[in-house]
Write a structure and sequence with these properties.
Helix content: 25-40%
Number of strands: 8
Radius of gyration: 20 Å
Largest sheet: 6 strands, parallel
Order of helices and strands: EEEHEHHHEHEHHEHEH
Strand order of the largest sheet: 5-4-3-6-7-8
CATH class: Alpha Beta
CATH architecture: 3-Layer(aba) Sandwich
CATH topology: Rossmann fold
Oligomer: single chain
Number of helices: 9
Length: about 260
């Protein structure tokens, strides 16, 4: 067997195409498409909040379809290429999985110390003197009692024994650093919320110095009445990633993984 082949991944990012101050305008910003050659040993796939349920029915239906049709076919190709699959499904969900318990469980139980009770719980709950700051829910109906709340990773992409599960950004960083990962490939939900802003999300991991790549067809934001037609929220969140880092398509990534096997054979 020869030297391990590189992943050849078409990526996209936003760039300013101005030539000097006189034409340095917003209209000069548009996407650049390039093909990166990446050592597969420096890559990991991070699946953010790929829950089995969601309190927004339309979002649950759309994300389930993406998981079945886009993310699930990607996983065998990644695993076959030796690329680790890391599930980051939020702390309360991560801790139910043996993959998390195996790596982090004992340590967490030793270091889980009580934190100061601040801000006051009444402020967090908008109760008592803080009730005047209450607002209508943005993603649930008034009076929602948590029925059908997510409680696991979606069955279509359930973790396999050799996968990893993390609960926090520190845990993700530990796994990435241990494997000398440079490129963290992201899929999951919601693009504009958790994928971007979790402590294991793109912005936090990018701030640590990694190079995130978001799979455009393996993510979806939470839209509103004004953005649903055309998926404007999702598109703008992807744009936000492309301003800083990169995006790619899962079909291209699968093809890149499969090409490794042909080259090695």
């Amino acid at each position: 067997m020869g030297v391990k082949a590189a992943l050849r991944i078409p990526i996209r990012y936003l760039a300013m195409h101005s030539t000097d101050l006189a034409d340095n305008v917003e209209a000069g910003i548009w996407p650049v498409e390039e093909t990166y050659e990446i050592d597969p040993a420096t890559v990991a796939l991070v699946l953010v909040d790929t829950w089995n349920r969601h309190n927004i029915l339309s979002h649950e239906q759309s994300t389930a379809r993406i998981m079945r049709e886009r993310i699930a076919p990607l996983l065998p190709a990644m695993r076959a290429a030796g690329i680790p699959v890391i599930h980051a499904p939020s702390p309360n969900i991560a801790r139910i999985y043996p993959q998390w318990q195996r790596r982090f469980g004992a340590r967490w139980s030793r270091t889980n110390i009580a934190l100061p009770e601040w801000p006051p719980s009444a402020l967090r709950q908008r109760q008592g003197e803080y009730a005047k700051y209450a607002r209508l829910p943005a993603e649930t109906w008034t009076g929602w009692d948590g029925v059908d709340r997510w409680n696991a990773i979606h069955d279509s992409i359930a973790p396999e024994p050799d996968d990893h599960v993390v609960a926090t950004g520190d845990e993700l960083h530990e796994l990435l650093a241990e494997r000398r990962v440079l490129f963290s490939i992201y899929a999951g939900f919601a693009t504009n919320i958790c994928v971007l802003h979790r402590d294991y999300g793109i912005l936090a991991i990018g701030a640590r110095g990694y190079l995130p790549i978001l799979l455009r067809d393996c993510t979806l934001g939470i839209e509103t009445r004004d953005t649903l037609d055309g998926l404007l929220t999702t598109r703008l969140a992807i744009h936000d990633v492309e301003r800083r880092y990169y995006s790619a398509d899962s079909a291209d990534l699968i093809a890149a993984c499969q090409a490794i096997h042909h080259t090695d054979a």
